[in-house]
Specification:
By secondary structure, this protein is an all-alpha fold. It is about 70% helix and about 0% strand.
C-alpha cells in the first residue's frame, strides 16, 4: 500500500468519524462499514506488512469511535457510571475519569476506557474489523480450486 493510499484512508476516516458527529453511533458504524468493506475489497491481495496496517487501522478506528462515545456521554459523572456498567471497577472508573483534565481524544486512549469500550463493545454494535475480514477473504482465495494443467503430448 502506498503512502498516498494510507493518507487517503486516514483522511476518509477523519471525515467518517468527525468529532462533531451529530448522529448515533450505530449510524456512524454503518457508514464506516460500507466504506471499509469496499476499501478492503480493493486491497484484498496484499503482503504481511499490510496485514499489520489493517490491525493498526482497526485500533485507530476504535479509538476515534471511543472519542465519539465519550463526547456523547458528555459529563465525567456519566462517563464513570457507564464505564462501571460496562464492567470496570467503580473505584478505578471514578479515579481515572476525574484524575486529570483530559480531552475526549486523550481520554479515549486510557486503559480504563479502552477496556470498557473495547473490541467486544464495538463488535457487538456491528463494527467491521479489517484484519478479521481480510483473513476471511484470503481464506476463500486459498480454498478456491486451482487451475488444471493441460498435458500436451
Amino acid at each position: 500500500m502506498s503512502k498516498r493510499s494510507k493518507e487517503r484512508i486516514d483522511k476518509k476516516l477523519r471525515e467518517l468519524t468527525a468529532r462533531n458527529w451529530g448522529n448515533s453511533l450505530e449510524r456512524c458504524i454503518q457508514r464506516l462499514n460500507s466504506y471499509l468493506s469496499g476499501w478492503l475489497g480493493f486491497f484484498k491481495v496484499c503482503t504481511q506488512a499490510e496485514r499489520r496496517t489493517f490491525q493498526k487501522l482497526d485500533a485507530h478506528i476504535r479509538r476515534r469511535l471511543r472519542a465519539i462515545v465519550l463526547k456523547q456521554w458528555k459529563r465525567k459523572r456519566t462517563i464513570a457510571k457507564r464505564l462501571i456498567r460496562l464492567g470496570i471497577k467503580p473505584r478505578t472508573a471514578w479515579r481515572n475519569v476525574y484524575e486529570k483534565k483530559r480531552s475526549w481524544w486523550a481520554m479515549s486512549h486510557t486503559f480504563v476506557v479502552e477496556r470498557g469500550l473495547g473490541i467486544a463493545y464495538f463488535k457487538g454494535r456491528g463494527l467491521l474489523s479489517l484484519a478479521e475480514r481480510h483473513r476471511e477473504l484470503t481464506a476463500r482465495l486459498d480454498s478456491a480450486p486451482k487451475q488444471l494443467e493441460l498435458v500436451l503430448g
